[in-house]
Design goal:
The chain has 271 residues and is α/β, with parallel strands linked by helices. The protein contains 12 helices and 8 strands.
Length: 271
């Protein structure tokens, strides 16, 4: 396990690292998750093996610290990740990020462009959303509690029961305040929005999504802005868990195609 202090109060981000060749491959988890349990099978896949790989946990989640006084905005998550990646000397990394982690990764690339050479988003959040009217999986299931105190009083236990044993196994590692604030801030999004930032990024970008969801309504607009949109079969939202082989091959293909399409991008970003 590796770590880096990212806040003045001593809070540290931690990650599991696999040695190998560069550019570095960085995996970022989604809301209530942890990178190693979700991404470890992909890192061992022949299509991705041999790379220096960081499976990193955002502040508030997994094996990282859980400061109770942080607002946990997407910008704060991105800045904390940037501090950790700078200390890890990753250069211009290939960042693969799932769900909320994708929203953070877009924000990271926009605010700290020297750290992200290529970006693969995995069914990521790109737009702000209105508060939910009923509980459902994802950040909306948490945001149904209108106040943080309500979530702390009863929402934490109800959410653990609602999300099921797999997600709860990593969600229970999160700080309750971090979980709630991150979920609410994910619904609020960023200004400019994650989508607007993604469309303006000058780096190679790929968006993976479950084929079972049907064609994405935004596929044409994403493609027009230079984002490759790729559907992955036999999976739901947790693509890397449901179809690890298809996920690893798709990530490898995306990075290879990005390298061919824009071979100078990683080197330029590292300079």
């Amino acid at each position: 396990m590796h770590s880096a202090q990212v806040l003045s109060d001593g809070s540290r981000i931690r990650w599991v690292e696999i040695p190998g060749v560069e550019p570095v491959l960085v995996f970022v988890h989604g809301l209530g998750a942890s990178s190693a349990p979700y991404f470890a099978p992909a890192t061992a896949h022949p299509a991705l093996a041999g790379r220096r790989t960081l499976m990193i946990d955002m502040l508030g989640f997994g094996i990282s610290d859980r400061p109770a006084d942080l607002a946990y905005t997407l910008e704060e998550h991105a800045d904390a990740l940037a501090a950790a990646l700078d200390q890890a000397a990753v250069g211009a990394a290939d960042v693969v990020a799932h769900s909320m982690g994708g929203a953070v990764a877009v924000t990271l690339a926009a605010r700290h462009p020297h750290l992200v050479g290529r970006l693969v988003l995995v069914d990521a959040n790109l737009d702000p959303l209105p508060p939910p009217q009923a509980k459902r999986p994802g950040s909306s299931g948490i945001a149904v509690y209108r106040t943080e105190q309500e979530f702390l009083d009863r929402g934490w236990n109800e959410t653990m029961d609602f999300v099921g044993p797999f997600w709860a196994a990593t969600m229970r590692l999160a700080g309750p305040e971090a979980l709630y604030r991150s979920a609410m801030n994910l619904l609020r999004g960023t200004v400019p929005t994650m989508r607007e930032n993604l469309e303006k990024l000058p780096i190679p970008r790929t968006f993976l999504y479950p084929a079972g969801d049907g064609p994405r309504a935004d596929a044409d607009s994403l493609t027009a802005s230079g984002v490759s949109v790729v559907d992955i079969p036999d999976c739901g939202h947790n693509i890397m868990v449901d179809n690890p082989d298809g996920f690893a091959r798709a990530v490898a293909q995306a990075l290879n195609e990005q390298a061919v399409a824009c071979p100078a991008a990683p080197a330029a970003a590292r300079a």
